[in-house]
């Protein structure tokens, strides 16, 4: 079986490995660097910046309290960027090694359909090659969406997330337009480095994907870090000023403006399918977002699509990889389905937040008969040591049987711990079963057992 995969991000390269493991002859076509958005300008670079910022904040804020005194904590911004590049390069090199080890042929160039199931690849030097395959997987990811706001396109101090990850100099002031995950994470990173950060958001809340109780804790911490939030404040235009950009907004019908050296516009991402000529391939899409079923099949037999370029799923690296495995297995004759229920959402702000399954708001909206259990990080020894006990765990469980419907964590190591919730949902575990499982001490994971106990009305440590 010959498979051609377009896009070498976490969707495409994982699909390539899985297909090769199952015996396929795989060609991976990538026009840029292997690793896609995730390794080059997404997950990994942002976490590098956030780690440096968190370390600084920890030394500055927590240090004196825990007996670590470093009165002169300084930011070496070029080194922060250099470290980010080093980590990214290393991981991209690792993907190249994995392709070789799995005998995946990589082709550097841009692929597009010239007919249904027929791809042409244009190399950097302009030469073209036709790729034929028994099956094709489209994994071309997404790009930053630039809203048609006057003054945006022509202003070089208005940057997107990619620009914010490769600045040469630390800005003194920054306005972040958009209170979604990317905007909030980068706001935290820059605020941690000492930049004065203001977040401007058109809606009346930030981080809409999180349970409201988690957002409250996160917002309180970010405000303590000095980040200003301006909600219900849509941006109307950008204007160049002597020192940067003026962001003209509206609040309650009145004009309001903010000025900053750099403006980060993080208002979402759109599918990166413009170069594919989907119409020539006969592949159905809605404004570039490819339509797929839960086997990752498009409307064209033998053509699959995965990751950020498909319609209706969370744009996350682990989503793309999970879909990549599903597509490869189906092509190779297995029966695999993508299951969104166990897909965690993580926000790597300070403290970290992570969520899987239903939020309380969603359970209410669906009319589900549910129970809630919570446990504060302040009552957990390890959390107290790590971050002073900021945060909480919240479990949503079915009222009758106690099956775990949702788990929501804000606090230290939340993004690692959430997998317990995902596993519980996958196994249809009940809170009794979480409680039966012995959790090691002292760990933050004990809060999850305690929250499960709270659903049953019998917490031990509170
Ligand atoms: P991509 O990673 O975008 O890869 C697509 C690849 O296809 C690219 O390399 C592109 O060059 C190539 N390509 C496109 N068109 C063609 C063509 N015609 N021919 C050949 N090649 C082509 N997700 C998380 O899970 N956790 C995070 O912490 C996280 N942080 C993020 C932070 C930022 C700032 C951003 C922007 C994103 C973040 N994401 C995060 C999202 C994550 O990066 C994406 O969900 C993930 O990379 C999607 O994987 P993909 O394989 O679908 O596409």
**Strand order within the widest beta sheet:** 3-2-1-7-20
Low-confidence stretches: none
Main beta sheet strand tally, sense and closure: 5 strands, parallel
CATH superfamily of the largest domain: FAD/NAD(P)-binding domain
Mean pLDDT: 96
- Helix percentage: 25-40%
Tell me which ligands are bound. Answer: flavin-adenine dinucleotide
Q: What is the 3D shape? A: globular
Query: Structural class given helices, strands, pairing?
Result: alpha/beta
What is the CATH-assigned architecture of the largest domain? 3-Layer(bba) Sandwich
* Oligomeric category: single chain
Give the count of structural domains: 3
The strand count comes to 25
CATH topology of the largest domain: FAD/NAD(P)-binding domain
Strand content: 25-35%
CATH class of the largest domain: Alpha Beta
What does this structure look like?
With 462 residues, this protein is of the alpha/beta class. The protein folds into 3 domains: 2-144 and 270-332, FAD/NAD(P)-binding domain, CATH 3.50.50; 158-267, FAD/NAD(P)-binding domain; 351-456, 2-Layer Sandwich (Enolase-like, domain 1). It is built from 14 helices and 25 strands. It has helices spanning 12-21, 36-41, 43-66, 77-101, 161-164, 181-193, 212-224, 278-281, 317-331, 360-365, 381-387, 414-426, 431-436, 446-455, and strands at 2-6, 25-30, 105-108, 110-115, 118-122, 128-131, 135-138, 142-144, 158-159, 173-177, 196-200, 228-230, 235-241, 244-251, 254-260, 262-265, 269-271, 285-286, 289-290, 303-305, 345-347, 353-357, 370-376, 392-398, 404-410. A hairpin with a 5-residue loop joins strand 24 and strand 25. The longest helix has 25 residues, at 77-101. The termini are far apart. The site of flavin-adenine dinucleotide (FAD) has 37 residues, from strand 2, helix 2, helix 3, strand 4 and helix 9. The active site is at 441 (proton acceptor).
